[in-house]
Amino acid sequence: MEFQIGERWIGKNHKPFIIAEMSGNHNQSLERALQIVEAAAASGVDALKLQTYTADTMTLDIHEGDFFIEDANNLWKGSSLYNLYQEAYTPWEWHETIFKRCAELGILVFSTPFDETAVDFLESLNVPAYKIASFENTDIQLIRKVAATGKPMIISTGMASIAELDETVREARQHGCKELVLLKCTSTYPATPENTNILTLPHMEQLFGCPVGMSDHTMGVGVSVASIALGATVIEKHFTLRRADGGVDATFSMEPEEMKSLVVETERAWQALGQIRYGATEREQASLKHRRSLYISQDLKAGDVLTRNNVKAIRPGLGLPTKYLDQLLGRTVTGDIAKGTPLTWEVI
């Protein structure tokens, strides 16, 4: 239930593994792509992820019918699939330059291959892991090809039924994948919190016996932070320099300040999980003296009777616990007692 990608550990005993997804946010500029790498590293992420495909490996060069996006609610309405992928793809000749820059900055880099030729290309770059996108999680030939590399696989589960995931996981394991993470994903762009269903995380972890995480398309950090409490060990978010710069994925991508917040807050959420525990922690021991306890609130003479007028439950906590008040009222004191003296059994 835990393993390494490069030098980074994945598992519940380790801080969340944060992935910045560049996707098409480079806007066809290598200079901008490298700026995104630098911003991601400065934000504290563990890894940058690319997508490796061409328009021709994704679809056919047809601009009508099934190959044209007409859905009024679709972020990319009015574009053909071919033109969309031409706009969004990361040129393969850029990969090595981007990989080198990530290495210089001390973050991991890997990619999502969308067909078998992309896997062969990424193997030539010695990627440390592979990500499978939600729309390809039922592409069994691709799953087998990636699994055969023996590298860790991170699979988004968007839209997949339990039966489909079972088939995918079985195929991956049977063909060489020993280190697997499943990411809960909602394949809408952007996704809404009410359509995210992160209660699936512990169920998915138990069902498939592997670490789980989030491929999170919601806005902000709330959903990702909440997912940590339910067992997420990996968080993937789309990343850009500024949403206002535009680009195919810019609308639902995080900006550097937001990504830095995600890194910080998910780690805090992970640290807060701790263990099942009651009672004062070691650091709380000093605070125990500030509980309420019973104190003499008026100067008393020997033989005076304790009443609610001369005994109070107040801070600090150096007197008897307040639960003994009823047993003490009506008792007499054995000697003179000054106001502000903690009440103990010895004075009655």
UniProtKB/TrEMBL annotation:
* Keyword annotations of the record: Transferase
Query: Matching Pfam families, A to Z?
Result: NeuB, SAF
Q: Does the record carry Zinc as a key word? A: no
Q: What class of enzyme is it?
A: transferase
E.C. number, please? 2.5.1.56
- List each copy of the AFP-like domain by range: 293-348
Q: CDD domains of this UniProt entry? A: SAF_NeuB_like
Record GO terms (molecular function):
N-acetylneuraminate synthase activity
Q: What is this protein called?
A: N-acetylneuraminate synthase
